[in-house]
User: Which sequence fits this backbone?
């Protein structure tokens, strides 16, 4: 085996996971397009009819359904998908190959452990980056297309992440955490459990302290104005990418020590 063939081997070994990821991304994007182009018009038509009769009505109880709720559910699904990424990285991408001895077999066929790990991380990282970026762009379009049906609260955890690069950063961080966990605990099931637990703990911590990422203005009465979205999202993204970089460095250091 040569180093040039390694990315293709990673693609072949994990094609099922990559197909699942592609279907997931395309499914959520398709749902956003359907909501924006089809559901929103029906909801607005019902809303206008309701207002003609009663002058006021709740969009969540219209015959055509709601727009904001399914939009929120899609963002929630995409936001918490990083748990699945961490589990897959810990249990399958790295953990199973170390546990079964497949990794050591590759290391005896002209591929250094460092190049093996680099390929193992680069291929899924690219898939996460491309898929996550596509979702964020489409979600931002869907969020902005019908503001009167969505509301003004952008501070919900999933919506906050899905409207910016923080969503992609969560997935990349989960990939790095899962890989490091698998190298420290070279058994797939323990690595799965620990990597997900670490990501849940990190998620809970950042969500709790998210409003502290950017100072509030005295005039905001304790609430962040809309102009604070991008600074807060970019700060959170930077924190997650820094953790991902440190964790990835630790993963390579751990691998070198194990194979020295």
Assistant:
């Amino acid at each position: 085996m040569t180093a040039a063939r390694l990315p293709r081997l990673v693609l072949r070994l994990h094609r099922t996971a990559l197909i699942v990821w592609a279907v997931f991304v395309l499914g959520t994007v398709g749902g956003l397009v359907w909501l924006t182009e089809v559901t929103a018009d029906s909801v607005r038509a019902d809303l206008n009819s309701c207002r003609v009769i009663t002058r006021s009505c709740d969009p969540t109880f219209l015959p055509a359904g709601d727009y904001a709720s399914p939009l929120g559910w899609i963002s929630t699904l995409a936001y918490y998908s990083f748990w699945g990424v961490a589990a897959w990285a810990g249990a399958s991408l790295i953990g199973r190959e170390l546990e079964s001895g497949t990794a050591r077999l590759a290391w005896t066929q002209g591929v250094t452990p460092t190049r093996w790990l680099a390929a193992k991380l680069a291929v899924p990282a690219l898939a996460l980056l491309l898929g996550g970026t596509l979702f964020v762009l489409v979600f931002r379009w869907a969020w902005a297309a019908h503001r009167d049906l969505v509301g003004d609260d952008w501070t919900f955890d999933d919506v906050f992440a899905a409207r910016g690069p923080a969503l992609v950063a969560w997935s990349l961080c989960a990939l790095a955490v899962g890989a490091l966990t698998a190298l420290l605990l070279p058994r797939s099931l323990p690595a799965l459990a620990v990597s997900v637990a670490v990501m849940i703990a990190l998620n809970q911590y950042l969500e709790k302290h998210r409003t502290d990422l950017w100072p509030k203005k005295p005039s905001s009465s304790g609430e962040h104005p809309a102009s604070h979205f991008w600074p807060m999202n970019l700060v959170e993204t930077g924190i997650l990418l820094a953790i991902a970089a440190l964790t990835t460095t630790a993963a390579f250091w751990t691998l070198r020590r194990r194979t020295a």
